[in-house]
Amino acid sequence: MSTPDGGAPKDPEVIKAEIDATREQLAATVDELSRRLDVPSRAKEGVYRARDTAVETYRESPPVVIAAALALVAAAVGLVVWRSKRSQPRRK
Predict the structure, then answer these.
(1) Is the Cβ–Cβ distance between 65 and 58 less than 8 Å?
(2) CB within 8 A of 42, min separation 6: which ones?
(3) Of 13, 36, 71, 78, which sits 20 to 30 A from 21 (CA to CA)?
(4) φ/ψ (deg, to 5) at 38
């Protein structure tokens, strides 16, 4: 007797091993998809990674980090002032 693909009949233990291997691959695929689709968890990972990078950068070069933070604050304040002046009606 032969299999549908024309090969020799397979031993039931071989078939069981193939099924188990396929189940493990499917489980790994489902786990990976679940991890990729878990947006809140991935967002938290990104925040933690950014925080760790900022802390490490600060430890390596505090003056640069302080200067960058001050520049960011100054840019934000400048943007707020510019927008508030732009939104006020002009007097003639």
Answers:
(1) yes
(2) 35, 36
(3) 36
(4) -85, 80
pLDDT value of position 24: 96
Which amino acid type is present at position 2? S
Residue 16 CA: distances (Å) to CA of 12, 52, 57, 82, 85: 6, 47, 53, 71, 75
Q: How confident is the model at residue 2 (pLDDT cuts 50, 70, 90)?
A: very low
Q: Is the dihedral of CA 16, 22, 25, 31 positive or negative?
A: negative
Helix (H, G, I), strand (E, B) or coil at 75: helix
Measuring CA to CA, how many Å separate 89 from each of 77, 78, 84, 85? 21, 19, 10, 9
- pTM for the model: 0.39
Reading the block at residue 92, the tokens are 């003639």
Q: In whole angstroms, give the CA distance from residue 56 to residue 81.
A: 33
